[in-house]
Design a protein that fits this description.
This is Putative transport protein. Pfam families: CitMHS (PF03600). By secondary structure, the protein is mostly helical. The protein has a domain of 228 residues. 76% of the residues lie in helices and 0% in strands. Helix 2 runs antiparallel to helix 3, helix 5 runs parallel beside helix 8 and helix 9 packs antiparallel against helix 22. The protein starts with a helix and ends with a helix.
């Protein structure tokens, strides 16, 4: 079917579906925007970033938000955290430090390509247990790209996809392990009154089981040329100029400030959006010290990804404002009430995972955790297990760039297409939907 026809048909089908499911106009509007955005994203009938811009336009037309409220999502602090990650990557690339760091990995792995990848994935997962997965991927991406720079993008595309998706997915899965690893964990922990160790008893087993399964699945499906990773075509020998030294110092300070956020926030006097403040500070320091020109920053920043994530945040706000999230949760819960328990849990997990593909996992968890605590007893389930499952599942969206910051960052590198992410992510979503209830319950 050609694109012009789809652009006409998909809005009509989305509106009819929304109208048939619910009678209330407000909820209809939320469901319509969600269905239309999802259908445009999955079909790629228009560029996914243009679809992201369509969301606030529709939200204003349908009266969900005024213009100011709709546009505010594009100034969310996480947008600036993304921007800082792009700036760090651009600075390291400009001074060949990304390739130099990649060669340190190869040297430590003693020429073993598999070990190089495992080291990168393990470091990514471990860091994500303690700091923002966005910040983690922002730090690891330039190192990965430096490692991959010795390979041909065309001939070794599967290797590029393996490494980059491996980093994104390792960050998401690693963040499940601790209470501070991902916002949904903290939301569930606060609602249930769980301590740090009590959450680890739930989240760490999921990480330990899912992480190696993800690595094996990527390796088997993509068949990467990992041997080539340990054999760069040329050795990078760099002179430690003042700008290179300063770039490394700024990178390390930024990474340390992200990792030590809980200790530094009270000292600096910043309660909210600390990571974004650090990212903006890094951008300014890189520029005023001459380590990153504005022209390079402008060229290397993936502005389409920033638009994409702003649209995703706006969609999440639409679903919350219209009550569509809660309506869908109750609809699914009542429909599955007569199912065998484990089958019902898998279906609920699937629902959370696929909802997270098109909305913020933090906003989704904030709405769904109390909702599922409230309805769990009526469904014969443990409130603790139900809320924990919701929080864990909310970190397991692997299909779309808009789903999570790690997905968006590696998509923004330009080496992973949306279709490749959808193909791998769909399988991982199904695997997660089965594993999460089995482990949590």
């Amino acid at each position: 079917m050609n694109k012009p026809l789809l652009i006409i048909i998909l809005p009509i089908v989305s509106w009819l579906l929304a109208s048939s499911v619910v009678d209330e106009n407000v909820k209809q509007d939320g469901l319509f925007i969600m269905l239309l955005a999802a259908s445009f994203w999955f079909s790629q009938v228009i560029h996914i970033s243009i679809t992201a811009l369509l969301i606030p336009v529709l939200a204003v037309i349908l009266g969900v938000f005024d213009v100011k409220s709709a546009m505010a999502h594009f100034a969310h602090p996480i947008i600036f955290l993304f921007m800082g990650g792009f700036a760090l990557a651009a600075a390291l690339k400009q001074h060949d430090l990304d390739q130099w760091l990649a060669q340190r990995f190869v040297k430590q792995a003693r020429g073993n390509g598999v070990l190089v990848c495992l080291m990168m994935f393990l470091v990514t997962a471990f860091l994500s247990m303690w700091i923002s997965n966005t910040a983690t991927v922002a730090m690891m991406l330039p190192i990965a790209l430096g490692l991959l720079s010795a390979l041909s993008v065309q001939r070794d595309n599967s290797t590029y996809v393996f490494v980059l998706l491996g980093i994104a997915y390792s960050a998401s899965i690693g963040g499940i392990a601790t209470l501070v690893g991902s916002p949904p964990n903290a939301i569930a922990g606060a609602a249930l009154g769980l301590s740090f160790s009590e959450w680890m008893a739930i989240g760490l087993p999921v990480t330990l089981v899912f992480l190696p399964l993800m690595w094996v699945l990527l390796f088997v499906v993509l068949k990467p040329n990992v041997k080539a990773l340990a054999q760069p075509h040329e050795t990078i020998s760099i002179q430690w100029t003042r700008q290179r030294v300063v770039t490394v110092i700024i990178f390390l300070i930024t990474a340390c400030m992200w990792m030590l956020g809980s200790e530094l926030k009270p000292l600096i006097g910043i309660e909210q959006s600390y990571d974004a403040w650090v990212a903006l500070s890094a951008i300014i320091l890189l520029h005023v010290t001459g380590c990153l020109s504005f022209e390079t920053f402008e060229k290397q920043t993936q502005w389409s990804v920033l638009l994409l994530f702003g649209g995703g945040l706006c969609l999440s706000g639409v679903l919350t404002e219209t009550g569509s999230n809660e309506f869908l949760a109750n609809l699914i819960a009542s429909a599955l009430n007569d199912m065998p328990t484990m089958l019902m849990l898998i279906a609920l997990s699937l629902f959370i995972i696929f909802m997270t593909e098109i909305s913020s996992n933090t906003a989704l968890a904030a709405l769904m955790v109390p909702t599922f605590i409230g309805i769990s007893e009526a469904m014969g389930l443990s409130p603790t297990a139900s809320a924990s499952m919701v929080a864990v599942a909310a970190s397991c969206a692997f299909m779309l760039p808009v789903a999570t910051p790690p997905n968006a960052i590696v998509y923004g590198s330009g080496y992973v297409s949306q279709s490749q992410m959808i193909q791998m992510g769909f399988v991982l979503n199904i695997l997660a939907a089965i594993l999460v209830p089995l482990i949590v319950f």
